[in-house]
């Protein structure tokens, strides 16, 4: 797997050090130090939001160049005193640095946010979408209580709409485009959920030449590209809504490898409708079912079960949440953040192992889970499913 830009140490070493640091901190914290840290973190998040809003990071030169606070304040049209205080607060979180002559400069953590669109998109998504979403958690409980409806969520409170998340995106193509860009950024640069992990999650090389893989809800095709580049024998179909498919078309047009382009077909398709590609070797659902409560998840799985031929597989790439306290704390925290985000957006969830078995057992025609494995360094697991008759 290619290393993301500016990676300081190999990912497995980075993650191991962060896990040890987290455990060490938990071991020594007391209520007072916990609160003091919380207050600092709150200020750091607010400062980050301010910096994103006024596009400060983009207006700074790339290292090793630096800029004076005065010059930056004037370029960004913000008060000098606020700018200096905000940036110095962010330096306490490891972002940016000050030169010995009192100028401000990017460092290896901050520089990617100014030069790599995917990091910029990810940061904007967090401050503009995730933070307000979590902020509406109390409002959603007050308004909707224990509702399981997909249009009675914190997202509905924030967006002030009665449409479900994906209906809202469909009605506002500019938002759908933004969401698609966010999903692409995750597949490309979030080391825990990069699309490449899928290569280790299934025996792709065992598929016969010309085998068909259908990426159901495949977004703008980032995963299909990864599979097509790694396995020259595979043919792929990416199915999704109109906007992601248009984005996938643009991504394919920019792809220089003609063989990869020739083996990827794009199709608008509603995954609640009958599957138009019966008998595929693999139907892939990558980060799809966590967006949907069980009732809707079953309506997505059923057309695939009907299209499945003997030997064919449904692969679900999604999170499998561990029982509390049974694994790495940093990994569990990341999975629980996603679990809450799914609840707040869709009244859905990240499922535990038992949830996956219960869900799959309800599909008709009957299916069987053959394996669940989490590739090394990946937040997602791959759930391999066949017709029950061949298990
Ligand atoms: C969380 S994203 C996952 C995208 C991609 N599989 C990935 O791993 O990056 C969910 C995808 O489901 C698509 N989607 C939502 N409702 C759909 C529907 N009814 N039919 C087909 N695709 C749908 C969205 O457009 C979006 O691309």
TrEMBL record:
PANTHER family, per database record: DUAL O-METHYLTRANSFERASE_FAD-DEPENDENT MONOOXYGENASE ELCB, PUTATIVE (AFU_ORTHOLOGUE AFUA_4G14580)-RELATED
One Pfam family hit: Methyltransf_2
Gene Ontology BP terms: methylation
Catalytic residues as annotated in Swiss-Prot or TrEMBL: 290
Alphabetized UniProt keyword annotations: Methyltransferase, S-adenosyl-L-methionine, Transferase
Membrane spanning stretches: none
Domain O-methyltransferase C-terminal: 164-361
InterPro entries per record: COMT-like, COMT_C, SAM-dependent_MTases_sf, WH-like_DNA-bd_sf, WH_DNA-bd_sf
Protein name: O-methyltransferase C-terminal domain-containing protein
Keyword S-adenosyl-L-methionine attached: yes
Organism of derivation: Apiospora kogelbergensis
SUPFAM superfamilies cross-referenced by the UniProt entry: S-adenosyl-L-methionine-dependent methyltransferases, Winged helix' DNA-binding domain
GO molecular function terms listed in the Swiss-Prot or TrEMBL record: O-methyltransferase activity
PROSITE patterns in UniProt: SAM_OMT_II
């Amino acid at each position: 797997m290619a290393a993301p830009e500016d990676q300081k140490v190999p990912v497995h070493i980075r993650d191991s050090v962060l896990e040890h640091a987290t455990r060490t901190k938990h071991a020594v914290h007391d209520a007072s130090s916990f609160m003091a840290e919380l207050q600092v973190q709150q200020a750091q998040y607010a400062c980050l939001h301010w910096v994103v809003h006024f596009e400060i990071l983009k207006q700074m030169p790339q290292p090793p160049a630096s800029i004076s606070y005065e010059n930056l304040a004037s370029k960004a049209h913000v008060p000098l005193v606020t700018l200096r205080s905000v940036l110095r607060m962010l330096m306490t979180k490891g972002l940016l640095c000050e030169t010995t002559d009192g100028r401000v400069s990017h460092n290896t953590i901050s520089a990617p946010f100014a030069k790599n669109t995917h990091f910029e998109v990810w940061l904007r998504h967090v401050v503009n979408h995730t933070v307000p979403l979590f902020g509406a958690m109390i409002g959603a409980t007050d308004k909707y209580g224990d509702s399981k409806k997909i249009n009675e969520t914190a997202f509905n409170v924030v967006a002030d709409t009665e449409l479900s998340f994906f209906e809202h995106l469909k009605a506002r193509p500019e938002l759908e485009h933004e969401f698609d860009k966010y999903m692409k950024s995750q597949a490309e640069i979030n080391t825990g959920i990069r699309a490449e992990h899928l290569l280790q999650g299934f025996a792709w090389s065992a598929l016969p030449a010309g085998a068909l893989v259908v990426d159901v809800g495949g977004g703008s095709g980032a995963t299909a590209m990864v599979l097509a580049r790694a396995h020259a024998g595979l043919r792929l179909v990416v199915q999704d809504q109109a906007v992601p498919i248009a984005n996938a078309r643009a991504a394919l047009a920019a792809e220089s490898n003609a063989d990869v382009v020739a083996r990827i077909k794009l199709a608008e398709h509603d995954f609640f409708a009958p599957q138009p590609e019966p008998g595929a070797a693999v139907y892939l659902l990558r980060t799809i079912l966590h967006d949907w409560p069980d009732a809707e998840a079953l309506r997505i799985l059923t057309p695939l079960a009907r299209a499945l031929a003997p030997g064919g597989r449904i692969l679900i790439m999604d999170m499998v949440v561990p029982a509390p306290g049974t694994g790495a704390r940093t990994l569990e925290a990341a999975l629980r953040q996603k679990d809450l985000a799914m609840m707040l957006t869709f009244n859905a969830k990240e499922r535990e192992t038992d949830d996956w078995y219960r869900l799959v057992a309800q599909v008709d025609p009957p299916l069987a889970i053959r394996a669940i494995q989490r590739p090394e360094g990946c937040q997602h697991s791959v759930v391999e499913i066949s017709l029950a008759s061949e298990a």
